[in-house]
Amino acid sequence: MGDIKNSLFRYFDGLMRPDAELKGLMSDPMRIYPISAPKDTKFDYIVHNIDINETDFIGVNQGAYTIHIWHNDSKPSGIWAIENRIITLMDYRSFSAIDGDGDTDVYSCRTWLQDRDQVEDDMEDIWHSVLIFYLRFDRFREIANILSR
Fold first, then answer.
1. With contact defined as beta carbons under 8 Å apart, do 95 and 107 qualify?
2. pLDDT tens for residues 70-108?
3. How far is residue 67's CA from residue 103's CA, in Å, rounded to a whole number?
4. Choosing a second label site near 126 at 20 to 30 A (CA), which of 8, 45, 145, 148?
5. Is 44 helix (H, G, I), strand (E, B) or coil?
6. Domain topology for 2-147
7. Cα separation of 124 and 130, whole Å?
């Protein structure tokens, strides 16, 4: 699953990082980290993670794409704008993702918003938000192997 996760991380990173509106709401260059951020990372930043679950259908997977957003602002309106922009980029999206060698790992991935929540934080003027997107996708190589039998 590591190759598939890497392909999905690469796709999602490539969707958010160049987005001019998101850069304007956060920082340029954007700080986006898979799984965890380095200790003492400067605000604003995003940490994202992917959990993949098997299904009863061969070649079809589902999972969750979780995005944690940390934003430094005196009011919550800034993090709400960041959330809304990420939702605009990610919700109801359909795509395929390639690996580092240019091969398709993930075919016909679909995403949609599953949950949106604020996390209490005891740091003054630091807002923490979590977005969770449902993933459903076909694993291209497994489907190709089945069809070639």
1. no
2. 999 999 999 999 999 999 999 999 987 776 666 656 778
3. 26
4. 8
5. coil
6. STM4215-like (3.30.2000)
7. 18
Rounded to two decimals, the pTM is: 0.87
Q: Which residues of 19-53 are buried (b: 16+ CB within 10 A; e: fewer)?
A: beebeebbeeebbbebeebeeeeeebbbbbbbebe
Angle between helices 77-90 and 2-16 (to 10 degrees): 120
- Domain residue spans in the chain? 2-147
Give the tokens for residue 45: 């930043």
Q: Give the separation between CA 85 and CA 19, rounded to whole angstroms.
A: 9
Residue the block writes with tokens 């960041």: 82
What is the tens place of the pLDDT at every residue in 10-56?
899 999 999 999 999 998 889 999 999 999 999 999 999 999 987 76
End-to-end Cα separation, the chain, in angstroms: 22
Beta bridge partners of 119: 128
Q: 121 versus 21: which is more confidently predicted?
A: 21
